[in-house]
Amino acid sequence: VTAEKGGFDHFMLKEIHEQPKAYRDTMLGRIDASGRKVVLPGLKLTDDKIRSINSIHVVACGTAYHAGLVGGTAIEQLVRVPVAFDVASEYRYRSPLITPETLVIVVSQSGETADTLAALREAQANGAHVLAVTNVVGSSIARDADDVIATLAGPEIAVASTKAYTSQLIAFYLLALYMAQVRGTKSPEEVAHVIAAMQSLPEQVESMLANTDAIKTYAEQIAKHEHLFFIGRGLDYAVVQEGSLKLKEISYIHSEAYAAGELKHGTLALIEEGIPVIALATQDSVLEKTVSNIKEVKARGADVMAITHEEHVAGLLRSVDQAFAIPQTLPLLTPALSVVPLQLLAYYASLERGNDVDKPRNLAKSVTVE
Ligand code: G6P
């Protein structure tokens, strides 16, 4: 590997900082000159085909799967087609209902993950159109898929994926908007509104990366713990699953990500005095419900840190021990911002524990065996 760390201590930190550029590059040429319409040059999926799709399967592994959770939700919300999510190693074995009217979206940074490639083949064998979201255009998955939406994150070296994940989110948002245009499920004004918000994301990430001291201090605090929990609802739940994976991968702290409302159905038994709970609370429509769940863990002694929009910080501070603000954006786009402090949290916790941040034990950048 000849890639350099560009002045950063680790590839992971470099790649976290490359996210604004990755967002811009992934949007480049895919929004028309008016800034109101998504264009996807080279897409083989015809408008007729897009209109005929009656179900969508999103299939991937690891971090790419987590991007798929957010992306598939965006498609379901904007396009109103049912979306199912599978980890690739399970997909084939549950006899999924795949027809020629199914669009299967496989997500893979490397394009070489064996389980994802096998899922792609299973889908094609059943007549589905397979669209790959991948970062490597010459990869096996890119070659075999019927369509490719490339993420333009540039080479990702650190085993723990960061800029590939966020670029996958951008690719999904573009695809969701494109399909909504074709099917007419969103008005041109609504599409333009989402695009405008997307175009602000790179700068918003830059503003978050300009001051990371508070998250570093918090990471040093949690590095002493062996167990912790993440909670969130809706898209926040999808994002905390990624935050929890990131933390496990490189800090080796055991963490679980829970749908905030599900905690009381068993896992609440594990909440004890002093245990850290990280609550992602950015989705306004369920904020009050998340606050109730925060109170449940607080009452059992948890030490709660919340991540929310600026306007909610003061309110949340009545229920939590500390709160971090992220910039304001549309609820649907929030994952492209809210994951950043979680990436930094994992990075600094790993650093504090003296781990090999870029090359965690037992893990490989891409897994080519099933
Ligand atoms: C490996 C990596 C993960 C990655 C997963 C899927 O397990 O360690 O970081 O998310 O593979 O990789 P892919 O290249 O298909 O996105």
From TrEMBL:
It catalyses: D-fructose 6-phosphate + L-glutamine = D-glucosamine 6-phosphate + L-glutamate. The active site is at 365 (for fru-6p isomerization activity). The keyword Cell cycle does not apply. Signal peptide: none annotated. Keywords: Aminotransferase, Cytoplasm, Glutamine amidotransferase, Repeat, Transferase. Residues 46-185, 218-360 form the SIS domain. It is found in: Cytoplasm. Its main location: cytoplasm. Its EC number is 2.6.1.16. GO terms for molecular function: glutamine-fructose-6-phosphate transaminase (isomerizing) activity. Homodimer. Catalyzes the first step in hexosamine metabolism, converting fructose-6P into glucosamine-6P using glutamine as a nitrogen source. This is Glutamine--fructose-6-phosphate aminotransferase [isomerizing]. The lineage of its organism: Bacteria, Bacillati, Bacillota, Bacilli, Bacillales. The chain holds residues 241 to 610 of 610 of the full protein.
